[in-house]
Amino acid sequence: MVNEKPNPSPDESHRIATTDDIEVSTYLEIAREIGGEQSVSAPEAAPGAEREAIIVLDFGSQYNLLIARRVREAQVYCELMPHDTPWEKIAPLNPRGFILSGGPASVYEKNAPLAPAYVYESHLPVLGICYGMQVITKQLGGKVTPGTRREYGHAVMHISEEESPLFSGLTESTTVWMSHGDKIEQMPPGFEAIAYTENSPYAVIGNKKNIYGLQFHPEVAHTPEGRNILKNFVYKVCGCKGNWTMGNFVSESIGRIKEQVGDGKVINALSGGVDSSVVATLIHHAIGDQLTCIFVNNGLLRREEADRTLKVFKNNLGMNIIHVDAIDRFLNRLKGVTDPERKRKIIGEEFIRVFEEEADKIGKVDFLAQGTLYPDVIESVSSFSNVSAKIKSHHNVGGLPARMTLKLLEPLRYLFKDEVRLVGKELGLPEEMVWRQPFPGPGLAIRCIGEVTKEKLEILRGADFILMNEIKKANLYRQLWQSFCVLTDVRSVGVMGDFRTYGYLAAVRAVTSDDAMTADWARLPYDLLARISNRIVNEVDGINRVVYDITSKPPSTIEWE
Ligand code: XMP
């Protein structure tokens, strides 16, 4: 077995083939070589790391982060990288295989993005998904043409090559999710069709050198056996060992943080949310009292939230915490403000001020810890992220003090939200903290429609407390992405006892979602809704009517403001 390391020369490594400049003959050569007798080879482990990684090259599909999540769920580290990433950036991760993502382009169009030469020259396994499959087809000498009609939705895939490692443990016929316009007319030399659907003779193609193409999306829930296909690819085709566990992550991170921080000082804005709590705990495990957390009570928190957070972090975990009661400062600045974006801006600005003032009091600080997560990182590097119309400016309190000249410490930078929760569990954080639903930085201010006042906030807190209590009692808290009350500025007439009332209308919002990009309103049981409504109207002075929000996102958003 030839065990050669993929070693494209530096200037060659970044060579991206586009349909304009591609020398198809080059790829035909590669295709022949790959289809020939040479063995597949893999690089040696990157120095200093017992790493293995699957690299997803991003061609712009809306599902591509999901591919990375699925691979990580199979305990193999996976990163999504722009499709034109140079080899030097990939090599240190010790790649074991490539996945070429789907994407909106057509390979036969001018300037269509294609894969860098190293993908094929490395001799590592490759899995092309949808557009990625067409990229492989084009680059290795096959033919892709526009389909006569788009194929979108469910299809039944039949396996014709049962021996393929990609299909290990799969049923012979399985449902898959298609979403494509172009189709393969001719496979590249050396490839065979190993599964088909009624409309696609080439639902899955592969060659003897571990290059595969899938016409469908294995990463979406609509392909029920998709996870197994991806798992087979990473284990049976790429030979991964599966060492991406949160236990390993925690021990590696602690070492890395110690090394990075040395005897420096770190500050962190603790909000009580999952991300900032996990960041604080992880760093505290690594450097103890060199970390100081600043907890700002802006008066826009849920009932009992501030006390609960302080209790866990100060009393139970023994962290250095500065508790700033800034309730009046925030509420004064919000006086008379009704525009949601103004509210966000004011809260963001005031937060920076308070945070900076407190940080100044600490003296010399070297690092600012932030709970940046992988989807934020991807958003900022993706070559396909288009500047879409700004719907809401999401100020994340953890990410604000840009003026401060501190070095950033972002230990969760490569994690998905579900992985962050597992890290929290691993670190021994209470369940209640680990599974906390997301809570927006501007807090109750954007759930209190119109002007934010102390009185309205108290009414909202009362209603929200009852809602959360009932949701938790019904064991639904974890299944819901978010559940909360909104205090509208609508008042309506009611009757309680023999008296006329004129009170606020409260809205209950409960949604299911994976990532907040889209969300569906939760089908809460009627008797639960009835209990919530009864209790709110009976127990909260000022509310005499409750409605349930039955809109999804889109067209609505999750928060009302
Ligand atoms: P929307 O309302 O845009 O919310 O559907 C999507 C997710 O973002 C949260 N959200 C915010 N988070 N600052 C934040 O930190 C904000 O200004 C903000 N606005 C909305 C919202 O709770 C949901 O999870």
What's a quick, concise take on this entry?
The chain has three domains: 24-237, Rossmann fold (3-Layer(aba) Sandwich); 246-434, Rossmann fold, CATH 3.40.50.620; 448-548, 2-Layer Sandwich (GMP Synthetase, Chain A, domain 3), CATH 3.30.300. 33% of the residues lie in helices and 24% in strands.
| Low-pLDDT runs | 1-10, 18-25, 35-49
- Ligand species: xanthosine-5'-monophosphate
CATH superfamily name of the largest domain?
Class I glutamine amidotransferase (GATase) domain
Number of domains: 3
- State the CATH class of the largest domain: Alpha Beta
Topology-level CATH name of the largest domain:
Rossmann fold
Radius of gyration: 27 Å
Any idea what the shape is?
Answer: globular
Q: Give the strand order of the largest sheet, numbering strands 1, 2, ... along the chain.
A: 3-2-4-6-11-10-9-7-8
- What value does the average pLDDT take? 89
The count of β-strands is: 20
Computed structural class = alpha/beta
Largest sheet: 9 strands, mixed
CATH architecture call of the largest domain: 3-Layer(aba) Sandwich
Task: Give the oligomeric state of the chains in this entry, treating copies of one chain as homo and distinct chains as hetero.
Answer: single chain
Task: Walk me through what this model shows.
This protein has 561 residues and is α/β, with parallel strands linked by helices. It has three domains: 24-237, 3-Layer(aba) Sandwich (Rossmann fold); 246-434, 3-Layer(aba) Sandwich (Rossmann fold); 448-548, GMP Synthetase, Chain A, domain 3 (2-Layer Sandwich). 33% of the residues lie in helices and 24% in strands. It has 17 helices and 20 strands. The protein has helices at 10-13, 24-35, 64-73, 87-90, 117-121, 131-139, 226-237, 246-261, 274-287, 305-316, 327-334, 340-362, 374-381, 417-426, 431-434, 454-473, 526-539, and strands at residues 16-18, 53-58, 78-82, 95-100, 113-116, 126-129, 143-159, 173-186, 191-196, 204-207, 211-214, 266-269, 291-297, 320-325, 367-369, 407-409, 482-496, 499-512, 520-521, 543-548. Strands 3-2-4-6-11-10-9-7-8 form a nine-stranded mixed beta sheet, sandwiched between helices. A five-stranded parallel beta sheet has the order 14-13-12-15-16, with helices on both faces. Helix 8 packs across helix 9, helix 9 (274-287) packs across helix 14 and helix 11 (327-334) packs antiparallel against helix 12. The longest helix is centred in the middle third of the chain and has 23 residues, at 340-362. The relative contact order is 0.08. The structure holds xanthosine-5'-monophosphate (XMP).
